[in-house]
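Bumping with the actual sequence this time:
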Amino acid sequence: MFWNKKDKELEKIIEEIKVDLSNNYKDNAVLGIKKLRETLLEKENSGKLKEKDLAAYRSILSDFENDVKNFKRTY
């Protein structure tokens, strides 16, 4: 996906989730996805992202949510 300007805060969260998933840190990945969802909503409500960028980040969030939907919590 192409977008105008990557958001540094969202990109950092995305990278953390990728690392957690690659290292099989499922609980951390789930928490990271929650943080991504909340941060994205905050930026959407404040108008800090253009619609095109928002759609791109929503797609990334959806992909992560699909990746972890069958994870079993360990606590």
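The tokens above came from a reply further down the thread. The mean pLDDT is 88.
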